Amino acid sequence: MTLVAMTLPDDPAELAGWLERHLAGLDLARLVAELSAVHGTPASPASSVRDLLGQHLDEVVRSGLGGLPSEMLRQLLRQPALLFELQEIVLAADSPHWDRLAGGELAAMVDEGWNRLERTLPREPVILRPRPRHWQRWVVGVVAAAAVVLIAVLSYPVLAPLFRSGEQPSAVAWGWARPGALPSDLPPAEYLRELADEADEWFKQRPEDTAALAKRIDQMRQGCRTLLEADHPPLSVEDRAWLRERCRAWQGKFDDAFAAVEAGRDPAAVQAEVDATVNRIAEVLRERAARAAG
Amino acid sequence: MSSLAHRDFEALYRQHAGPLLAFLAGRVQPRADVPDVAQDIWSRVWHHRASFTGGNFRAWLFQIARNLLIDRARRPQLEALPADHDAPDARLASPDVTLMDQEVQERLRRCLDRLRPEERELVSARLGGESYEDLSVRLKLTAQQAHRLFHTAKTRLQECVGQADEP
Fold first, then answer.
1. CB atoms within 10 A of CB A197
2. Counting Cβ atoms within 10 Å, is residue A50 exposed (0-12), middle (13-18) or buried (19+)?
3. Taking the CB of residue A275, how many other CB atoms lie within 10 A of it?
4. Closest-CA distance of chain A to residue B161, Å
5. Chain A residues in contact with B38 (beta carbon < 8 A)
6. What number is the ipTM of this complex?
7. What distance in Å separates the CA atoms of residue B7 and residue B13, rounded to the nearest whole number?
8. Kind and range of the H or E element at B112?
């Protein structure tokens, strides 16, 4: 049996990275057990990780242990029970830094887990219906046509701004919904940067009135749907999963913005919120691109 | 289940499964049960997905995980173990004890007691994160001597713990 604690690096500069890998890996319990055997019970232990790390805790969650003063790192090693608490905080925080560490080491277990899980998930049943007779099809046709006319009349006030310029909602000439916006032959980092540049196209045209703002937000929503439904062949499985999850969150924000415009909220305020969202989207896509390149 | 819902669920799984596994590995004994517990948690997520109303999915997932671990800890031992299982089940211990591999801890303590005092102090200092430069000043050794002494102690500990592995 190899003692995990004895793999502690000789170079103090490598200590933070070494401890991070154990916090995000599978053998933290062993490490804590070994360190507890070596150090025993501390004379005046900190009552919690926040108590020990104070204002540094937020930075640790965001960026890891690299920026922690060396004395605090040593305190963590000498009070190893706190490592469990720290682990729970950083793993539950949905922090890209810690997720990247956990994702690398545990990739094989994650794949095996999905294969097992997928077999247990229910599938949508296929319901076979008998073909309608000729007269039934005729009745259904008349009713459907009437329904289309009725829906068109009732929804005219909502849809009119989208059609006023003569442009169909699906024919978007910018952003992610533009035809050819998602090239399949780029390296992962370039692909993510391309997505960031396309998000930035939001800023190329500033809406002049409320209807134009609603239309442009709706086009951003279409772009999100395009991203969600695309296969993103240049990306790894992890990056694809990340992108789709982010995309759902972005779509929620654009849905909220669209609803706010329709509800009569100040368009300038809504536009400012969308600007901030798009800036953040472009920023995280470029951060992800940098990681994919690194 | 539509294919889109299935794909969304897979995306969520792939985004969050790694951190969840790491979290469980420190809290589920025996370790071999971790994949099964993870599977139970994801099944709960699937069946209760309608109750997730948006917001922080990770926080929701970890709350489900904590609840399931509490359920496991409360489960009567006879129900949790097969009839022919006679080993103690650490899952039923208090949280603090469950978090530690007591056997490794005890074995290492016994082996540490067999080291010379200066070796013990050196091991404690190094595994407390002290650099060779710092502890050589404190222990009045050259850095090279401290390095050599630590590696001797480390080898002896490793051998001692390894011997305890043998039947």
1. 14
2. middle
3. 13
4. 7
5. 113
6. 0.82
7. 10
8. helix B102-113
Which phi and psi angles does A186 have, rounded to 5°?
-100, 155
- What are the percentages of helix, strand and coil residues in chain A, rounded to 5? 70, 0, 30
Residue B141's Cβ-side half-sphere holds a number of Cα atoms within 13 Å equal to: 19
The verdict on a CB contact (< 8 Å) between B129 and A70 is yes
Q: What DSSP designation does B33 have?
A: G
User: Which of A32, A98, A248 is opposite residue B99, by nearest beta carbon?
Assistant: A32
- Amino acid making up residue A285: L
- Only one residue has tokens 């329904």, namely A147
Mutate to test the interface with A, among B57, B127, B133, B135 (most CBs of A within 10 A): B127
- Token reading at A82: 């706190």
pTM above the 0.90 mark? no
Assess contact for A39 and B161: CB atoms under 8 A: no
pLDDT in tens, A223-249: 887 887 788 888 887 788 778 777 877
* Contact assessment for residue B1 and residue A123, using Cβ atoms and an 8 Å cutoff: yes
Option in A15, A28, A92 nearest B26 (CB): A28
Structure tokens at B125: 């200092």
**Do the chains contact at A30 and B25, CB–CB below 8 Å?**
no
